[in-house]
Structure formats: structure tokens, C-alpha cells
Design a protein that fits this description.
Number of strands: 10
Distance between the termini: 34 Å
Structural class: alpha/beta
Shape: globular
Order of helices and strands: EEEHEEHEHEEEHEHHH
CATH architecture: Alpha-Beta Complex
Radius of gyration: 16 Å
CATH topology: Spore Coat Polysaccharide Biosynthesis Protein SpsA, Chain A
Number of domains: 1
CATH superfamily: Spore Coat Polysaccharide Biosynthesis Protein SpsA, Chain A
Length: 198
């Protein structure tokens, strides 16, 4: 099964004062460069969903815009999945600096086992570190058209395969793997973690 890596870079970064989170430096590299390095070894090809492509041309990756503007992460998942040349899209957020190639592989290698393959940490499903098959497109689009943007909202219409927290923890603490950097405080914490991991 061909799996395309899709990096979601369509957010407005309001909690970061409007500065694009993906371009913030951490351990000497931009966060999005760290994301690319973690995802690339696990997938067949890679693309970025963004409405500001000029910010990411330096990566040399294909880029697609949101088809449904201002429809949040669900809209981004749809746009990336529709554009993906593969059978499925492994979708991640651009602001997750501690993604791990082995955890990405864990999800990608199971992409054929369900319509959605997704890690669970406690009560939380990691919707922006999950594989979505093309078979999800109809259910997602129906939600977008109805303005119902909660990602897990369509899960009862498709086959969902969960990956246990303990499997992720074999490679790295799930709290670190799935950490997002949304605020200046989270950025400061991430810089401390990056220094520790280095």
C-alpha cells in the first residue's frame, strides 16, 4: 500500500501571536524541518497542506491549499487525503517537534488494516498522527459540508484501528512524541526538552 505523508501547515498560529509555528527554531532547526525528517523515512512521498506556500518553498515539497477554507484540521485532512497520490495519507501537524520515525512507521505499516489507523494515549485519540485511507473521503466531506468539524465525528462510519499507548512508549514517551507547540510557554518547554534529548 502506498502511503503519502501529509503535513498540515494551515493554521493561523493565533496563540503564538501570528508567527508561523512551523518556522520557529528548536535545537537549531525549524520545527517543520524536524517534522519532515521524522516522517520522510516512513512514507512513500510527502506533501504539505498550506494556504501560504511561499513560507515553505525552501523544503522543496509539493504543496496543496485547503479545499474548504477555515474548516480546521478536518478540512486539512480532507485536502491532503484528496491530493495524496497514495492509497492513504499519514497526516501530522506541522508543530510537533518530537515526532519519531519509528512511531510514524508503526502507524504507516498498519495503514492497510483499517480506514483510520490511530494511536490512543489515555482518553485521547491522536488525530494528527494518524493514517486515513481514501475510503474516508466521502464521510469527511459530508461533515465539512454540514459544518461539523470534530475530527472523530466521522469515525463511527469507518473502520478504526487503534494503536496502544504502550506500543508508542517503546520508542519515546507519548507525551513528548505527540506534543504540539501552540504557545510561547510550550515553545520554551519544547526547547528544554530538545536540549535534554540532544
Amino acid at each position: 500500500m502506498r502511503v503519502t505523508g501529509v503535513i498540515q501547515a494551515g493554521g493561523k498560529s493565533t496563540r503564538m501571536g501570528g508567527r508561523p509555528k512551523a518556522l520557529l527554531k528548536l535545537g537549531g532547526r525549524r520545527i517543520i524541518e524536524r517534522v519532515v525528517d521524522a516522517v520522510k523515512p516512513a512514507v512513500d512521498d510527502l506533501l504539505i497542506v498550506t494556504n501560504t506556500p511561499e513560507l515553505y518553498t525552501f523544503l522543496g515539497l509539493p504543496m496543496v491549499p485547503d479545499i474548504y477554507l477555515d474548516h480546521g484540521s478536518l478540512g486539512g485532512i480532507y485536502s491532503g487525503l484528496l491530493a495524496a497520490p497514495g492509497d492513504a495519507a499519514f497526516t501530522v501537524a506541522c508543530d510537533m517537534p518530537f515526532l519519531h520515525a519509528d512511531v510514524a512507521r508503526l502507524v504507516v505499516e498498519r495503514a492497510g488494516s483499517g480506514d483510520v489507523v490511530i494511536p490512543r494515549v489515555g482518553a485521547q485519540l491522536e488525530t494528527l498522527h494518524a493514517a486515513y485511507r481514501k475510503s474516508c473521503l466521502g464521510a469527511i466531506e459530508a461533515r465539512l459540508v454540514a459544518g461539523r468539524l470534530k475530527i472523530v465525528g466521522f469515525f463511527d462510519e469507518v473502520r478504526v484501528v487503534e494503536i496502544a499507548e504502550s506500543e508508542v512508549a517503546r520508542y519515546r514517551d507519548p507525551a513528548i512524541v505527540f506534543m504540539n507547540v501552540n504557545t510561547p510557554e510550550e515553545l520554551a518547554r519544547a526547547r528544554e526538552i530538545a536540549a535534554r534529548l540532544a
